[in-house]
Amino acid sequence: MTQTQRNATDHHLPPEPPVTLTLAKTFGLSESEYKTMLDILGRDPSYTELGIFSVMWSEHCSYKSSRLHLKKLPTSAPWVIQGPGENAGVIDIGDGQAAIFKMESHNHPSYIEPYQGAATGVGGIMRDVFTMGARPIANINALRFGDPSHPKTRALIAGVVAGIAGYGNCVGVPTVGGETNFHPAYNGNILVNAMTVGLADQDKIYYARGAGVNQPIVYVGSKTGRDGIHGATMSSKEFSDGDEDNRPTVQVGDPFIEKLLIEACLELMQHDAIISIQDMGAAGLTSSSVEIASKGEIGVELYLDAVPQRELNMVPYEIMLSESQERMLMILKPECESLARSIFEKWDLDFAVIGQTIPEQRLKLFMYDKLWCDIPVPPLVDQSPLYDRPHVPTPKRDAVDNDHYALPDGGFKNAVTKLLSCPDLSSKRWIWEQYDSLVGAQTISSPGIAKTQSHRAADAALVKIPNHEKALAITSDCTPRYCFADPVEGGKQAVAESYRNISATGATPLAVTNNLNFGNPERVEIMGQFVGCLDGMGQACRALNYPIISGNVSLYNETDGKGILPTPVIGGVGVITDWKKSVGLGFVDDNHTIILIGATHGHLGQSLYLRELHGLEIGAAPPVDLSLEKKHGEAVRELITQNLVTACHDVSDGGVLIALCEMVMAGNIGFTLAAPHTSPAFWFGEDQGRYVVTTALSDELQNFLTRNGVSFEILGQTQGKAAQLPDGESVNIADLVTINESWLPNFMAGAKS
Amino acid sequence: MKAAIIVFPGTNREQDMGLALQAVTGHAPHMMWHKDSTLPNCDLIVLPGGFSYGDYLRCGAMAAHSPIMRDVIARAKSGTRLLAVCNGFQMLVETGLVPGALLRNASLHFICKQVHLRVESNASPFTSSFKAGDVIHVPVAHGEGNYFADADTIKRMEDKDQIAFRYCNENGVVDESANPNGSQSNIAGVFNDTKTILGMMPHPEDSVTMPAKKYDGRKIFESLVGSLS
To answer: Which residue of B lies nearest to A175 if distances are taken between CA atoms?
Structure first.
């Protein structure tokens, strides 16, 4: 549609409704926030201005409840090029190259409209990454669903998985890993967190900052429609039953346009034409233009009639608050406008000059020559609300007495069967086979464990850098039940597990992004969870030299007053200089010695063993000894680099015996045991800081560990086609696979009946 | 061997194909934009995988009418080798250069996994490095790879030795349990009647340089190099 057609009949927009405190409250502003707005403006705001203030000051955009605490996180290291504050974080990965990454949530939209909610979550995070000049090379995700028996769970899984697949596969970025867990606490509020990792040359990284005055502001990508208006506000409040009526505020994604946008932007970025660039994500044109103005300490003047529109009779409020997808805002060098236009036209994308930067630090919006908005930018940003919400620490829980939780009837075979087939541990093949994990031809490893997998199973996904021998290791981790029981230890554990998963491939952990999913911060115990998790996370990142370089906060994950489990997901990235030295988690040959690195005390509190075999979610979360984590991680990486290890798997959910069974299934080789232990606490306890490794050079490996003061224990030997259990029983590999792989496809098949 | 890969809006496996060709032939292939009208001199044309035009009308239907396709079809008809993979195969059936159609997977889901293929014929420039009956290991990644043709057409293709690959299990047995997408007679790839054109759903280019698992796709490119040099 051309511009003249578009508005042929409409040069007289209807008058805007008057702004009152009542209206402001329905937009999510509090009374004191409303007063601050009046003070800033010195007059009553227009309807458009109210929309802009309310969205900029929403929890989603302003981080008003979390900012105070986020500041305490460690964000720097010699290899960090850009920490939090830009579209994504940037680290140095050598050879003049950078990895750019971030994780972001799309929880509320995905619950309301699972396909589009998840799809646009993936699209949005990819834009954050390629906006900075990086080609996205891998996606991973972290999903949390409600109880499988909840009537909505099945349809939500089907929709979310199809949405992630539909978007990522089409754009051609491999989805190489992820995690999926279930808990009744997510019944009314699922979590969909998506992470993108991109690759850029260090001398071609683009930022939102840096614009000067009198430079053209260019809009590229899809046209603007009425979808997603006030989406950021929706994401900033609790749900209640009936919120499915919010469906029109969920955006609709077009991965084909995203693919064209990636190619066009990256093509333009090869030239020295862009001064500043910002994607239009949450709060669309509003946040992107305010960001550019604020970071450049300049003003922005936009002519909204020039914005490409796909619906008739849109008003300034709608254009500014639309969250239509696949759109970007750029400041170009004035002399490069025609070059840029020709590139976007080649890719059949809209390209429109919609305004210019001005010296006065104001956001001025015109439409049909009328001024609809005139807001001073510095106070809009600097006086955005900041709350020190009251919080109380989560009470410490008592340790469980292991003697009370003997193995139930059926012995180890029954326990292994129950654990491997429980929703959290059962194979997620039904999910990841719907994701194109190969496109790009660089995927070395991914976390699935099936022999039909196209690549090796490992604790972290490994994606090679084209034309180099190095590879990135990528993982997402969080154990919400630990965070609920003990936010500080749980926060530490999420970081430590990420560190372990990367170390277990042989890669060096470099930096993380986080996605902090919590309930209503206005409740003191929820705010206490938030503060506690961040405390633990900060301690772990400092101790492991594993800084946080980007992230996202998602609060108000509640329905009708019931909060989710605190779920601070960690997305970790590491690098291995020679991918050929990396290892997977599957056993690779018979007669390798199996060694457990790290001490086992038999910590059963919050274990899956207690939950699945005794029906109890009780006890203290396992404590994390950060100095041991560091020591063991370094030892494992060194052993892998010295080619002393043939397979490596971190010990996490389900404990040592489950780790061993996973190594069996991934490698199609069984084991026999030599360790004398018979207590369930030894085999299913979830003590931290442990890895199972296999080796063909047992003496050298043991010498190394002894020399370095790392505790270890010989568990047994790889051998045969069955897993030998501690009570002498054994399970054939084929049976293990059936046990592990049946639950999810059977559950999903029920969707059709 | 000189190769040209056609890039459409929405193509996303041109890098995979380019790396595979580079690895086997030692030369970087030409990357041709779909709006170009003529191909350079080349021995092999490749229609790569992806989601051309977002697969919004019918997979491959729009791309089959892109400006460059006129020259692609003319060259292919005069004997230049044409390899069409995944979305490329979908375009190929739209052009009518090989029979059949590609429907939505029987599971209705996109599927990405390793499959086994049985080499049905080695009497082609694409498969001469195999023995007929060889079982190879390559990945699939598609949502609409369910090959369909009527029984008479399939019979005619079988009589003319036009079936290139069938999905099978690791022992080479072709049966329903080894069929990932519902394809008629487990057909994974077909030739034209002179065997100068190969269309296939699996991705041999992803098992050439892929740094893990097997490298069976490589032999398809080696066959081409052998037959063309």
So the answer is: B112
Residues A300, A213: Cα–Cα separation, whole Å = 9
Residue to mutate among A438, A469, A588, with most B CBs inside 10 A, is: A438
- Residues within 8 A of B (CB atoms), A 21-80 only: none
Instruction: Pick the residue from chain B with its C-alpha nearest to A165.
Output: B110
The CATH homologous superfamily for domain B3-228 is Class I glutamine amidotransferase (GATase) domain (3.40.50.880)
- Identify the DSSP state of A334: G
Percent of residues in chain B assigned helix, strand, coil, to nearest 5: 30, 25, 45
* pTM, entire model: 0.95
Task: Provide, as residue numbers in chain B, all residues whose Cβ is less than 8 Å from the Cβ of A579.
Answer: 211
For the question of residue A677 being annotated catalytic, the response is no
Parallel, antiparallel, or unpaired for β A175-182 and A135-145?
parallel
A480, amino acid identity: P
CA distance B134 to chain A (A): 19
**Residue whose tokens read 């639309």:** A322
- Output the tens digit of pLDDT for each of chain B's 229 residues: 899 999 999 999 999 999 999 999 999 999 999 999 999 999 999 999 999 999 998 899 999 999 999 999 999 999 999 999 999 999 999 999 999 999 999 999 999 999 999 999 999 999 999 999 999 999 999 999 999 999 999 999 999 999 999 999 999 999 999 999 999 999 999 999 999 999 999 999 998 876 556 788 999 999 999 988 6
Q: How far apart are CA B201 and CA B191, in angstroms?
A: 12
Which one of the listed residues B42, B59, B86, B168 is annotated catalytic?
Answer: B86
In whole angstroms, give the CA distance from residue A162 to residue B162: 35
- Sign of the CA dihedral running A644, A648, A651, A652: positive
Is position B203 annotated as part of the catalytic site?
Answer: yes
| A445 shares contact with chain B (CB less than 8 Å) | yes
**Secondary element (H or E) of residue A559:** strand A558-559
Q: Which of A164, A345, A433 to mutate to test the interface with B (most CBs of B within 10 A)?
A: A433
